[in-house]
Amino acid sequence: MQRTGEVTAVHGDLLEITFCRPADCEKCQACQGGQKVTKLHLKGKANVGDAAVVEMPLKTVMQASALAYVLPLVGLMLGLATGTLLFPQSADIAGVLCGLVGLGAMLLFVRITEKKRQSDPRWKPQLIEIIPKTQDA
User: What is the reported pTM?
Assistant: First the structure.
């Protein structure tokens, strides 16, 4: 998955790249809290105003989505089922409580393992290309 953004600041070898939200997302606003721009910091050499092509492998994007959305949902569902089966006399309350515990456990797992993913280069966007800003003559 590639996106093109604009270099909006340079701090040594660290580039601040700003991406505008795609037009397809205008009505949804589900990601990034409805922000119209996303900023990313990557190492590279460029000038302010240059275009930067950034890539994140589709496999990694899918894995991140699964971690963020599917895993907590699985924890919730497993907790609901476990609570209902273990405590049939109060299945509703037990199901809800165990479901919340399962959800919390999966969210905690994602948070604990996040540090490992942050240090793994496979989980980071890669700067593919810098397209210099054209000078108007």
Answer: 0.63
